[in-house]
Specification:
Elements lengths: L11 E3 L24 H9 L6 E5 L26 E2 L4 H6 L2 H15 L4 E5 L1 H6 L3 H12 L3 E5 L7 H15 L12 E5 L7 H12 L2 E6 L5 H5 L6 E4 L2 H15 L3 E3 L5 H15 L2 H29 L3 E6 L2 H13 L3 E7 L4 H10 L5 E4 L3 H11 L3 E4 L4 H6 L3 E4 L10 H16 L9 H6 L5
Parallel strand pairs: 2-3, 2-4, 4-5, 6-7, 6-8, 8-9, 10-11, 10-13, 11-12, 13-14
Antiparallel strand pairs: 1-12
Helix pairs in contact: 1-6, 3-5, 6-9, 7-11, 10-11, 11-16, 12-13
The chain binds iron/sulfur cluster (SF4).
């Protein structure tokens, strides 16, 4: 591929041509304008679906733009997580320190909203001026009698994945502090589902029907009390592996809870995930009920999917998402629609993730780690794909280049998990591919309008 920054050349491979997974888990190359978000964003997106907690951003107001509206994690109860609280650090705080502002803001917010716990996020400015956020959290915590957890997440301190790790540490500060002591033999925690568009509710319902108790969801529609008791579950399933694997590992080490990776995107992976949980418990009734859930789920959407598949077969797609496990599921889901994936990339994939991705992709598929707009534009134009699947930062890229687009990131408003989610996904794919707008914004037009790569 032309126009790759030299030091990134090992982060792009082609299935069949290269035998190894792309280099990954590196800091983004200078000048590459990575599609990744910052450390703070990584922490915030994992923690803020804890709906009854106070989330306070210690930094300038611009950092607080990452609000609930950007990531639509729904709550079945409290709505405190939707408030975008910020200390709004200004020049005066930068010169004299922001600790007093933080202390006063925290006290005022806790007294007003009476949250179940509070998280305080350090941003770049707080990190640069050296505010002792840990000490202030401790002091106010003792004074107000509430858990206040500092989240050390200045944007410059690493990649979005470092933010995930910091968020896992913050969750570990709560897990195990609850009053429950008895382990429920048929129980799980769901790690890495954020109830985007209500997807946690779909997944929970499957487990309810299988007779499995969900102790906590970290962190979809989450409550502080449930998180405190998460250590009493017998098994952890990890949906967003990029963010939650460190937490799963830590819970295995501390409380002996085994875990497996799952995905509820697409038929195949949803069924495999439900069967994996049933197999873990080895209970004949649970297995029987899992089979029923899968059979009913597939039968309820089979006919509608076949009709869509007849019109999508033969198309090609590119995928660029946060985590590689989702990319793997999407490759399989697209195959069900007769669509071939010719490009797949992720922001935070690990070596193991990429090895799995390589094994499911067809020969000739380009695999990219930590892409930038220039590389994505080049692949879209060179490969002539019909459809691009990504998130909020990839959407304008696809539209400008005249390519159909489906949002599969955390901004989406449509639930795409489970069997019904597969049908919703297929409908979105079909609608976007057949939109009349592409007659007016063709790829050739984009080239002639001077899209520079
Ligand atoms: S990079 Fe720094 S300043 Fe920008 S949003 Fe992240 S924490 Fe805030």
């Amino acid at each position: 591929m032309k126009s790759i920054i030299k030091e990134r050349s090992e982060q792009i491979v082609t299935v069949g041509k290269n035998v190894t997974a792309p280099q990954c888990e590196r800091r983004s190359a200078a000048g590459a304008v990575s599609q990744r978000a910052c450390v703070f964003c990584g922490s915030r997106v994992v923690l803020y679906p804890i709906t009854d907690a106070l989330h306070l951003v210690h930094g300038p107001i611009g950092c607080a733009a990452y609000t609930w509206d950007i990531r639509g994690a729904l709550s079945g109860g409290p709505q405190l997580h939707r408030r975008s609280f910020c200390t709004d650090l200004r020049e005066r705080d930068v010169v004299f320190g922001g600790e007093n502002t933080l202390r006063e803001t925290l006290v005022r917010l806790i007294r007003k909203h009476r949250p179940s716990a509070a998280f305080v996020y350090s941003t770049c400015v707080a990190g640069v001026i050296g505010d002792d956020v840990v000490a202030i959290c401790k002091e106010v915590s003792l004074q107000e009698g509430i858990d206040i957890i500092p989240v050390g997440s200045p944007g410059f301190a690493g990649t979005k994945k470092d933010g995930y790790r910091t968020a896992c540490d913050a969750l570990l500060a709560l897990i195990g502090t609850g009053t429950a002591t008895q382990k429920n033999p048929l129980s799980i925690n769901i790690l890495g589902d954020f109830n985007v568009a209500g997807e946690t509710w779909i997944i929970r319902e499957y487990f309810d029907r299988m007779g499995i108790r969900v102790v906590s969801v970290l962190t979809g529609d989450a409550r502080v009390t449930d998180i405190r008791n998460a250590h009493t579950a017998s098994f952890n399933i990890v949906q967003c592996s990029g963010s939650m694997t460190p937490l799963a590992e830590a819970m295995k080490e501390r409380w002996g809870i085994p875990y497996t990776r799952v995905s509820f995107f697409g038929f195949e992976d949803t069924a495999a995930s439900l069967y994996a949980v049933a197999d873990f418990f080895g209970d004949a009734n649970v297995s029987q009920r899992a089979t029923e859930v899968v059979r009913n789920g597939v039968n309820s959407v089979r006919e509608a999917l076949t009709a869509i598949r007849n019109e999508t077969t033969g198309k090609t797609a590119g995928i660029y998402v946060g985590g590689a496990f989702k990319a793997v599921s999407l490759v399989k889901a697209l195959r069900h629609l007769g669509i071939r994936t010719v490009m797949a990339g992720t922001q935070t994939g690990s070596k193991r993730d990429y090895e799995i991705l390589l094994s499911v992709c067809d020969h000739g598929t380009v695999i990219i780690d930590d892409a930038n707009p220039s590389e994505l534009s080049r692949v879209i134009l060179d490969s002539g794909i019909d459809l691009f699947i990504g998130g909020v930062k990839e959407r304008p890229l696809a539209y400008k280049l005249g390519v159909a687009f489906v949002d599969h990131n955390h901004e989406r408003k449509e639930a795409l998990a489970g069997f019904d989610g597969m049908l919703a996904f297929a409908r979105e794919v079909h609608r976007s591919l057949n939109s009349p707008v592409w007659k007016f914004v063709s790829r050739h037009a984009a080239k002639s309008m001077g899209v520079h790569l």
